Structures are given as structure tokens and as C-alpha cells.
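[job 4417] fold queue: 2 targets
>>> target A
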Amino acid sequence: MPFCPQCKTEYKEDVLTCSECQVDLLPGLVPAQVPEAVDWYVVQSVPNEVAGHILKSVLEDEGIHVYLRTHEMPALGGIKGNVGKSECGDILVPGFSVQRARECLKAYFDSLKED
């Protein structure tokens, strides 16, 4: 069922716009909310922003909440905040999703080897 990305109201299939917020609806189910007091864990470091967004979308497609943390300091023109690391950033997920996220990422990386 389509839903409003702002108010999370679900609509019938033939509705395209939220009557309350006046925004286009998104397809699929309303995403589950992450509890506010959740511990986030690194499941993968990423070499650059593009790789980070690809892996983030792989996990989000599986319904896993993801936070892409960068090591760069935007206010300083992209200078890395942690000079000792070669990675651009990290993929973090809530603690209750760590095992599933690792399995999804392993399956994704394995599929790249097969091609």
C-alpha cells in the first residue's frame, strides 16, 4: 500500500497524493520506526561515499535501518576527521539488526563475485 513519507498515513493503491500533506506517496509499507534509545554498531567500513550509499540501499531494501557515518568534516571542505583511517566512513545499524545486516552484506558481496 502506498504511504505518505511525512505523516506515514497509508492509502489505497489508486491514491497518488497525501490529502493531508499534499506530497506524493511512496510505494510499499510504512517503514518501522527505530526506537530512540538504540545502540548503533559498525557492520562495514566504506572506502568512499558512493560505496556507502550502495551498501546503505542494499540494507534498506531488506528493511534494515541504516546510518551512514562519514569520517569527513564538512565544515572544513571534506578534510578527514580521522586521518589515521583510509576509509571514508562506516555503515551502522541498530544492535538488533547486526547479524541480519552482516548476512545481507555477505550475500551482496558474494553475488558480486559470481558475476
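>>> target B
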Amino acid sequence: MEGVLDHRLRHLLCAIGGIDQCVTEFIRVTDKTYPKRVYEKIYPEMHQDSKTANNTPVKPQLLGDNPKAMAANATKLIQLGAKSIDINFGCPAKTVNSSGGGSVLLQYPNKLYAIVSAIRDALPQDIPVSAKIRLGFTDDALFLENVKAIEAAGASELTIHARTKVQGYKPPAHYHKIAEIKDELQIKIIANGEMWSVQDIEKCIRTTGVNDIMLGRGALACPELALRAKGFLTNPMTWGHICLLLLYYAKILEADCPEKYQHALLKQWLIYLRYQYGEAHLFFEKVKKLSSANAIQMALIDSIKEKKQLIENHLYIGQLDLSTFYSEIISSPAHRICRL
């Protein structure tokens, strides 16, 4: 999810809990090997044993159509500390597809094989190589051939978004297509697409027959969805908790994100939260014209103080303890909080 699930949100969602591993935004590969600073921008976890702050494994994801360059960049990432490599064959964006990357490659099983095998052959055998695909480009005629090409090339894990590129993100996800090919493969299959609730996840697992799922937009809309899917969360998050979480995210952004981008990132997450929380619609309308993160933080503080009685007895958001942070908000003047 380019431009959305960066390292800040990865760390925050993993701190809430329930996530077993996560993948970086894609690193777009052309015909050269990048210097260390390029990887660091997208994959700062390389300096943390390839883990988030709560020890959730993170793997870097490469996107491109040049097997030699993809292998060279994968090799360098491993030298810099990566523990595994993921390959993006699923991105439906026109700008990505027009340059030969992402889901456009699903039209050419031989190219999938060449890229995966080049990376697999370049890396030590104990380094896992995984990939993500869709059912196809315009249709799913090559779906099984694509999957078998990736498996034959040496990938050990494959995530399948159960829609074609042309279908984009339009509901429904066609989980039955994964079920149709699953038993013909030895490779581990992970299902992805259109999971916004525990009921959606249960339907996906029941229909596909797989044991593992990948969350994307659903995790942004419902930050505790992974915990709910595992049955670990009994106290539901309220809109007051979401406001507290957004304010905590705003403080994370202050640490290393240029100020001019902070308000846009806060609004971007709000757009996803509207899928799950009706109050997010109203709040978004209230702040959508604001051009400073500080102003949005002030609005969040007002909302938190309005919801004080609803959240003060439950200050764990999943496994994330925000009790100290909450106390600072309640006990401090809003103008001072916004400068912490």
C-alpha cells in the first residue's frame, strides 16, 4: 500500500497486536542497485533486526521487471540485514503497470518465473522468497500457470489477492478461485482481499481452505481487526479510542515526518476509518479543509475530552498501553499538548 502503510503505521498497528508479519511498501527497481539510503527510507527496520519495535518481523518488498536488477537489489538488502524478500506482482496502479511492474506481469508467466528464479538463485537458500499476485490482469485465464511458475521458480510463500487487475478493488473478492487451485500446489498460500471484519475473514478462510490471510485496507479501517480475528480482544474500541489513537499517531509523525505532510497523512487514515466508524465521517468533514496537523490535533483533543467517561476505564488499545499518554492529554492545556 504505497504511500499509506509506511514504517510509522506498521509499527503502530503491530503494537496494537495480532499481526504475525508485515511487508514494506514496494521498492521500485529499474536497472540499478540502490544505495543504502534508498532502502532506509522505506525499510528503516533493517536497523532493528528486520522487526518493528514490538518484534514483529518485517520483510522488504521489491517491484520491477528486470530479473538481474531485482536479484542485485535483493542481494544488497540481505547484506544490509533483511531476513527475507517479497516480490510485488499485484500492484494495479497505472503508473506502475506502464513501466512494466506489478500486475501487468501477470500476462507473462515466463517473466514471473525469470524474476523469482533470479532472486532465488542469488540468495542463500535459508533466505525465504515470497511473492504477491492477483488472479490475473484482464481475466484469470493464466492464474494457475502463474502460480505454478512462481512455485517452480523457488518461492516458498505466495499471497493471492482474489481479484484481477481490471477488477481492482471492486467487491467481491473471488475467494473460490483460490480454493480451485490450492490443492495442486506445495507452496504456502495466503489469501488477501476485501476483509473488513471478522465475518469477512471467516468467510475467506472457509471458502479458500487456507489457514493464513493478509490484511491491507481492513487493518487501517479497523486497527484491532487482527486481534479480533484471533479472538484476543473482548472490549471493542470506541470512537474516543480512535481519536486517542489518531492523536498518538500525530505525535509519532512529529518525530520524523516533515510538517507539511503530517495533516495529509492524518486525513488519509481518517478516510479508511470511515469504513468502520460512522463518527469518522463527521470528524473528517470537520477537519478536511484544515491545512495543519496542529489544528487537527486540537480537534482530536476536544473529541477525546468529550468522550472522557467512555474511554478512561479502558486505555489499552489492543496491546498498546496509552494510559500515560491519555493522562497527559487530560491534565495538560491543549496548546501545550500540541507542542510535546
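[job 4417] complete. Note on B: The radius of gyration is 21 Å.
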